């Protein structure tokens, strides 16, 4: 064997991230990337001020991006779970965290319970148009007096003949102002403990549904976030989603998908900030050389890259188990916890490497930092993730 063929070069630029990504996934990635950069990213600053435009849903529906892993009989693409991961990863190139969140609520938070628990009529009424992007979904778990403690919610649904009458309120509801329907978590039997919850699909134009106010936030400005009231909202029994009394278990299942897709988006957001900062560090000079050439800066990038890669592989390994039909609650909680933390650490370091420019709005890094901070709170806080992980060992 000649000496030349013995020399193996490091494959730093390989696209091969994980064995579950096929050529089809990479083609999908390229096509979503092109769309995001061309049609969404140019609006990032405008949407930061005004929330993202309504046309995004039907446009993405038209392109098939709202139903990548959803069943073909309802207009989805029938892809595997990694197609959803690809979307979560590529949407960060819109440079608009609130947009990614609003879309994820549609595709990975409110839609999955309809796919899994919905009746045929419910799927035709809500799932099909949601995949087309002509109907917008939101998900209502959190209330003014109960967030982490989901079992502490007070919204009541009381049976009245063939109907249910709903009273209560929900807060911090993403898409709450533009949604056509809400997947609503209620209590139907307050004395039945975890067996006293029921989900409903409540049309947002029902009499008694009040979109109280648009909440002002630290980040994710491109998303709309609502405080909602439900005052004697009457819905037919056919609005029950899943089994009466099993809503708590249904929503705990939903939260797993929500957490894992948030984790994938968090890693991708960190990677994007890393790349932007790497370019900046190579261009910015101090003391006669690019700041990237200081050893301290090089080591900052090495630390960030290692954290990002560890987080990414945890997400992929967990996603592979989900794709295979497992229910890896412990690892999903670990992925959510770890990715949220490292994303915040990476964003903070990226601001530091940018110096004063990092603090300026025009570079977009401060926005990425503000947007990323939500990950340690939304969809279950760090503390709740730690509790789920700890309890999984019988503690
Ligand atoms: C921008 C944004 C968008 C959101 N979108 C939605 C949405 O679309 N739909 C929806 O339903 N909700 C949404 N949420 C709500 C979000 O999921 C909750 O904010 C989150 O679950 C935390 O609940 P909380 O805010 O009530 O905090 P709390 O539960 O009041 O917690 C406050 C603090 O106490 C800690 N804590 C609570 N319990 C424990 C415990 N057992 N052990 C240790 N520490 C504990 C928490 O970790 C936290 O640090 C959104 C929130 C935000 C900020």
Structure overview:
The chain is α+β, with helices and mostly antiparallel strands and 395 residues long. It is 49% helix and 15% strand. The chain contains 13 helices and ten strands. It has helices at 3-6, 23-40, 44-50, 56-62, 81-90, 97-117, 120-132, 247-283, 295-323, 329-354, 356-359, 365-373, 382-391; strands spanning 137-140, 156-160, 163-174, 181-187, 197-203, 209-214, 225-236, 240-241, 285-286, 289-290. The strands form three sheets. It has a four-stranded mixed β-sheet with strand order 1-4-5-8. A hairpin with a 2-residue loop joins strand 2 (156-160) and strand 3. Helix 10 runs antiparallel to helix 13 (382-391). The longest helix is centred in the last third of the chain and has 37 residues, at 247-283. The radius of gyration is 22 Å and the shape is globular. The mean pLDDT is 97. The site of flavin-adenine dinucleotide has 23 residues, from strand 1, strand 3 and helix 13.
List the helices and strands and how they pair.
Layout: H1 3-6, H2 23-40, H3 44-50, H4 56-62, H5 81-90, H6 97-117, H7 120-132, E1 137-140, E2 156-160, E3 163-174, E4 181-187, E5 197-203, E6 209-214, E7 225-236, E8 240-241, H8 247-283, E9 285-286, E10 289-290, H9 295-323, H10 329-354, H11 356-359, H12 365-373, H13 382-391
Parallel strand pairs: 1-4
Antiparallel strand pairs: 2-3, 3-7, 4-5, 5-8, 6-7, 9-10
Helix pairs in contact: 2-5, 5-8, 6-7, 6-8, 8-9, 8-10, 9-10, 10-12, 10-13
The structure holds flavin-adenine dinucleotide.
Residues 105, 139-142, 147-149, 172-174, 217, 220, 225, 374, 377-381, 383-384, 387 line the site of flavin-adenine dinucleotide (FAD).
